[in-house]
Write a structure and sequence with these properties.
elongated, homodimer, alpha/beta, four-stranded antiparallel beta sheet, Rossmann fold, Isoleucyl-tRNA Synthetase, Domain 1, four-stranded parallel beta sheet, 488 residues
């Protein structure tokens, strides 16, 4: 374990403040993140959440923790409008496309995994599905029933919120008061099974035409959406675990219900640190498919969209996301992404430059202090934008050494090389977007630069101009210095 | 639907002969393939099976069928030595590596998906897991019990093979006689629960230390390995479906048991066409981890192995596999792969050449007849090696046209372009291995060839030699013809 691990503070949404991070079991972290409902191509806003928690996961690993990272796939039970009534999101899509629901699940799980891999997100250690844990969900419902916090009604089972609230504060995570919740809740049609409007479904009886259904002690049906995360986190991380992450929009009711379900089934509040990532907006407005103010990852990467002036690589988008704190909203605009692209290129260029710097006896900068700032930023609730600012301090210094205006000692160079790799590649998860192509390009570019050198030596300006123009057309820029020419 | 679809014949392992293919429902194909047990990196022999069935899937789609392709992931129940006693393969690996079994499942599912994607195999439409279908398996066991073909013993449930054999021929798929099977089976220790040694487990009671276990009407336990495929194929394809594929080694007992389970639970033999892919050997011997005569896909692609002289790309390996019929054994040797690499390059080069051929009024070859041969090969039980031979007839012709020795008409060129794309790219699943790199390389190579042309025009032999050597060092060969220079 790194010494810096003892300094980590995490903003806990339940406490409403930053708290020192001490895991339940020394050296180990149990980490659960609510995954996607796989009924459509993954939303860019969801991607931001998953990339934020990928950065958290990477930093915990870097600190030396053995992390068990569980992120679920919701493939049943999530009803349209996140409600207790209505059609299952996946079943609806399956009906529209005349497919078996599991074909929809497969199609969009593949899309999700593909996009996550483009964003260089590390897959979780376990990726459980809701349909794969029906038995565990039934067992948890039974325990909640046995403890008196739920009731059966017409083949469905509902969580009794008011009963639970007598002994436990329902609404504590989202800061809601139950009286306000009750007065703000209308009784909707089709909710006659419930004793009170605030109650939420643990198990729903299934109409005969319903495809995704299983037998249970209460009849044939399917689990409520909130339940799966409680059942799967308990199975793989235990009744109490360290960190639970998810999007801000899941705080209420989803995570509030998770606390209630865990507590009602085994008497323990399940999560030690609740973390919530903030929203993404597009040109200042909420992203929404229905208003058309929405963009898919693929459309961003190919440039095939009406919002952006050009295509942006997944690594530039990832870097852009890292420039905002995960708890702040982030606005996608063409201008902001262009600026991020420049910053990203500059950063990656400096990482490359760092490999070939010349050393002297003394450093003109306090390199250990600079690296200390990297840790300080990340230990302050994973403050990636502050880290990025510090990385650009390093970039300035690296370029200064390259240009002979600054100096670096041998030991400092080794430390800075390690630290830049750790923080840029391992923790922020940025990799050189062009890597694959460059391998093949490199030997040919050696040849071209050689021919260019020769043409200049011969004062053959026609040829040297032709090479310059040809490379420009290929999107390659060449930089000359005393040490020779480099290209990017 | 293409007219050629009516000519398809499939070798049905149960009938022991090629049969005309007529699906249960016109225009639709239900297709199930036994997937991997995810407790280690996927074996090259398994890859061959999956690539063979990927080719089958691709051809069925090409013919115009709407195919529902289901391939499972075995994540519980497959015991060491494929036996009824002993440790679960995944639980054993989890114990050795001190991980939760589902972490093992995730690690090797990711490996499997990655390798399949390198081999350009299309993912199935549904990829169900055994742990995700415990309820369905329990329901099927109950049906078999109710029908009198199974018995409970000490919290386990066994299939009663002799009872089943009174009314149905057990052993029909593998051509075994039950008398021989009985006389060849020894009673092993720990099998006291069984009435007869041939009986196989549908449900196993779980020892207290067992991690992967679920409640059932017979106590806490886990499903038998053979059962999952029956339960999942029934759920997603129905009690009877068209094609079931798998490796030859699964014929007995796994597929034999699937027939028995399906028949015993609902009275129907589940599969209309049984297909079995053959083995892969390495230097003439069975691949086996224990003897060290084994090679992983990754080791093949990187060249990091003791068997091959060099690295081979996934597409070359795939092409190599397509040069043998899926029902024949195939021997991996360095020499054979080198030869395949040459053939693959020649084929892909011709596909490229085909884009720029000059047309004349008449073709010197009967192109529609040649294309007819492509279909004839594939319609003969997916005879890919015969298809490859016919594709090389096309290569010869294409190069002949390029060299001015043969001619092709405009219509024939269009048909041949379509057919070569269909059979090489869509059906054999071969894509240009260098594509990614070439995109970036192309504009720079345009420049280099231009400079080379200029040097030659100026009789500047030094420069032209330098370019030749530089390109050779980069592994690029240039071909000159009247129409200009091409590189590869």
């Amino acid at each position: 374990m790194r010494a810096e691990a003892s300094q980590l503070k995490i903003y806990d949404s339940l406490a409403g403040e930053k708290r020192n991070f001490t895991p339940l079991k020394e050296g180990f972290v149990g980490f659960y993140v609510c995954g996607p409902t796989v009924y459509s191509n993954v939303h860019l806003g969801n991607c931001r959440t998953f990339i934020s928690f990928d950065m958290v996961y990477r930093y915990l690993i870097h600190l030396g923790y053995k992390v068990r990272y569980v992120r679920n796939i919701t493939d049943v039970g999530h009803l349209v409008d996140d409600a207790d009534q209505g059609e299952d999101k996946i079943a609806k899509k399956a009906r529209l496309e005349q497919l078996e629901p599991m074909e929809i699940v497969q199609q969009y799980s593949l899309d999700f995994h593909h996009v996550m891999s483009q964003f260089n997100a590390i897959p979780p250690n376990i990726e459980p599905t809701a349909t794969g844990h029906i038995i565990e969900q039934i067992q948890m419902i039974q325990a909640i029933l046995d403890n008196g916090f739920a009731y059966e009604s017409n083949g469905s089972v509902y969580f009794d919120v008011e009963k639970y609230n007598e002994s436990h504060p329902y609404g504590e995570l989202s800061g809601r008061k139950i009286e306000d919740l009750i007065s703000n809740t209308r009784t909707l049609d089709g909710q006659e099974e419930k004793r009170a409007p605030l109650d939420f479904a643990l198990w729903k009886n299934a109409a005969p035409e319903h495809i995704m259904k299983w037998p249970s002690p209460w009849g044939v049906g399917f689990p409520g959406w909130h339940l799966e995360c409680s059942a799967m986190s308990t199975k793989y991380l235990g009744e109490e675990f360290d960190i639970h992450g998810g999007g801000m929009d899941l705080k209420f009711p989803h995570h509030e219900c998770e606390i209630a379900q865990g507590t009602a089934s085994n008497g323990k509040s399940p999560v030690k640190y609740w973390m919530h990532g903030n929203m993404l907006t597009l040109n200042g407005q909420k992203m929404s498919k229905s208003t058309g103010n929405s963009i898919l990852p693929k459309e961003l990467f190919t440039g095939d969209n009406k919002f952006m002036e050009k295509a942006f690589s997944p690594m530039v988008v990832r870097f852009f996301m890292m420039q905002a704190h995960y708890r702040s909203t982030l606005d996608f605009t063409s201008e902001a992404l262009m600026a991020a692209e420049k910053g990203y290129d500059k950063l990656m260029e400096a990482v490359k430059t760092l490999q070939d710097l010349k050393v002297t006896n003394e450093s003109s900068m306090d390199v250990p202090a600079l690296i200390g700032q990297f840790y300080k930023a990340m230990n302050d609730d994973f403050n990636a934008p502050v880290l990025v600012a510090q990385l650009f301090e390093a970039v300035k210094f690296i370029n200064g050494v390259r240009d002979g205006k600054q100096t670096i000692s041998k030991d400092d160079l080794a430390s800075l090389q390690t630290a830049m790799h750790d923080f840029v590649v391992e923790i922020l998860g940025l990799e050189n977007a062009e890597q694959g192509g460059e391998e093949k390009l490199a030997p040919v570019m050696d040849l071209v630069l050689d021919l260019r050198q020769q043409a200049r030596a011969n004062k053959d300006w026609d040829t040297s101009d032709k090479i310059r123009d040809g490379l420009a057309a290929a999107g390659i820029t060449v930089k000359d210095s005393k040490e020779g020419s480099t290209w990017s």
